[in-house]
Amino acid sequence: MWLVPFMVVMKGTSEYPLLFPLLFQWLRDVVKLQYFLNGLPIGSIYALVALSYSLIYAASGVLNWSQGDIVMLGAFIGFTIINVIKLGFTTGLLISMIVLALVGLLIQIAILQPLRNRQAPPINVVIATLGVAILIRNVALVIWGADAQNSPSPVSTKPIYLGSLSITPQDILILMAGIALMVILQFLLKRSKEGKALRAVAQDRYAAILMGIDTNRSDGVAFAASASLGAAAGMLVAPIFFVTFNMGALIGLKGFVAAVIGGLGNIPGAIAGGFFLGIIESMAGGQISSGYRDAITYALLILVLWLKPAGLFLRKTRQKV
Amino acid sequence: MFGLRKSISLLLILVIVLGSLLTIGGCSSQNSQKVLRIGVVGPESGGSAQLGQAQRKAVQLAVDEINASKAAGDWKLEAYFEDDEGNPTKSASATNKLIQQYKVNVLIASINSSATLADMVVTSRVGIPQITAGSTGASITAQGNEWIFRTAVNDEFQADALVKYARDVMGIKKIATFTASDDYGQSGAKLLASAAKKYSVDLVSEQTYNNGDKDFKPQLLSIKSSGAQGIFMWGLYTEAALISKQARQLGINAQLFGASGMASMKLIELGGDATQDMILTQSFLADSSEEQVKQFVDKYKAKYHENPIPHAAQAYDTVYIIANAVKVANSNKPEDLRNAIRKTQGLNLVTGSPKFNEKGDDIGKRLLITKIKGDKFVLVDTVFTGQ
């Protein structure tokens, strides 16, 4: 019986809603709905990190491997502001985002721009960002040490019950803050001058140069915005994951997988990919086996790359090399 | 007259020279006969550096004390230290170096269970008694190796004591295990399962996680739906703190239990309110009211200006066991030492009254069942490892 809407959708042209009837079927069970709910805040974090990868990739065609460690740096700076200097969470979040925007800009000016100007092959640029990642990680190790740090949550972590479902205010905060940041980003991309320039460069870099757009400037904007998003992701995830100098490796990798699932360089795709990955991880961990959770995640990545190399959520396949 | 004076002075010189020669000779011959060399291997750098450094400090403290108080009779103890970084290969070569180069008579090695197992290959081949003061892995004393002894608490005793306490004192009938997927966690999972069987407690859910995982909610939800009244964790403190927090966030009110591997102040610091009332087994609490413990803590603090950790207490006791063995055997031959260690009795030390079973496990050790209250561990019950 439930297959009817499924088949109707199958006949549709878009493949997007294909997942929905399947999802509704799954979610009729309360336990599964709980897994779904648990996947949302993590998904929101993954989406922010995936966005930061995609933003830089779309604007400058560079894969920035230091993104995960930028998340870690943002979390540590926020942790220090909140717990050592004793300013509030919102102030900490803002300062951390501003500081990281400057760090992002610095990476672009000090590393990317000189390599670009010397016409270095793309692989050198990627390796350089990997170097930045290792540098940030070791600096953090020296400053904050090897032990995990507990960053207290700005809101309560006591669960709220909706029937037999539970969710914590902290999870709601992460979800809401993540969505707010995504909306702000979309708004800036669509409305602001820098955002329009960035989208023009993403569409066709050389045409944009011919139209008089300063690509170094738009690259800088992309790096700053990305690092800022990363800092926010780090701040939001800190109360649930703790802050450690090596947390960037895992978050960076998961964010990258989400970006690839959504189609690298595709902004709405990155958001969808992040939530998709968060929910799949939670479901796979609970319904199949927690031991195989990561195996399932990466098997999914391979499957996506195999079946839909441009990402699950890209409707028109466009090659970007 | 003149000749007499000359011969007297010659005689005097002769006496002095001979006398000093004799005393020097006497001293050196006594030294070479009555010295017991102890080799110590532990991770003094790397991830478990804190444990190896505590072991070195405690061994040095005990050796100095024993030499000063003549607690080993005529025997003088000498300790030689090597760092293995927690790495089995480096540990085995450190053991070889201590045996060949420093001619040690007995070995205290090592802390990480995999390193201890590597050292045992060397010591059992050469035939040197080895005592581990830090490794809890059950496999160490399950190999029929006659040269190995352990003054740490075998994980088997810990799993047994935790499950028994849960059933007898807290009335828990259904338990879940939530263990790390490494060899430490998996050996713990097996021991908990067999303890549950022994005490006829229902094991309703067995979950695992990878070290470094951050999201434990899927497994915790399975545990929640299984209706377990107690969750037994086996792993390290960072993950245990996250598990405690996420369990409370999911509204799970089951009692949490943990083994000594995660019993660190850092667990309380990271886990905060979520770790309150968690129950853990440990062999040593620095703020205990036991007289032996107080004395040890005072001496350790006076020398190193920090509180000793359980590994320090166990290493300290180990040196006293060795001192007693060499005094009783009055020999530094490996077989004599081994037999004397095996017959250890009547000592009242910091972590208990050591007595070894045929496997080499200390069955006279106090095993403390502690509960987290506020920002510290509080003793709730004491059992002995032999029971």
Task: Describe it.
The complex is a heterodimer of chains A (321) and B (387). Chain A is mainly alpha-helical and 321 residues long. In chain A, 74% of the residues lie in helices and 2% in strands. Chain A has 13 helices and two strands. In chain A, a hairpin with a 2-residue loop joins strand 1 (160-162) and strand 2. Chain B has 387 residues and is an alpha/beta fold. Chain B has two domains: 33-153 and 288-356, Rossmann fold; 156-282 and 370-384, Rossmann fold (3-Layer(aba) Sandwich). A seven-stranded mixed beta sheet of chain B has the order 7-6-8-9-10-11-12, sandwiched between helices. In chain B, strands 2-1-3-4-5 form a five-stranded parallel beta sheet, sandwiched between helices. In chain B, helix 3 runs parallel beside helix 4 (113-126), helix 5 (155-168) packs across helix 6 and helix 8 (237-249) packs parallel to helix 9 (265-271). The longest helix of chain B has 32 residues, at 2-33. At the A-B interface, helix 3 and helix 12 of A face strand 7, helix 7, helix 8 and helix 9 of B.
Summarize the structure.
The complex is a heterodimer of chains A (321) and B (387). Chain A is mainly alpha-helical and 321 residues long. Chain A is 74% helix and 2% strand.
Topology:
The complex is a heterodimer of chains A (about 325) and B (about 375).
Chain A lengths: L2 H9 L7 H8 L3 H31 L6 H17 L5 H29 L4 H23 L15 E3 L2 E3 L1 H23 L1 H11 L1 H6 L4 H27 L5 H16 L4 H22 L4 H15 L14
Antiparallel strand pairs in A: 1-2
Helix pairs in contact in A: 3-7, 3-8, 3-10, 3-11, 3-12, 4-5, 4-6, 4-10, 4-11, 5-6, 5-10, 7-8, 7-10, 8-10, 11-12, 12-13
Chain B lengths: L1 H32 L1 E8 L6 H21 L6 E8 L4 H13 L5 E3 L4 H14 L3 E3 L15 E3 L4 H14 L5 E7 L2 H16 L3 E8 L7 H10 L3 E5 L2 H13 L5 E4 L6 H7 L7 E4 L8 H14 L5 H20 L4 H9 L23 E8 L2 E9 L3
Parallel strand pairs in B: 1-2, 1-3, 3-4, 4-5, 6-7, 6-8, 8-9, 9-10
Antiparallel strand pairs in B: 10-11, 11-12
Helix pairs in contact in B: 2-11, 3-4, 5-6, 8-9, 11-12
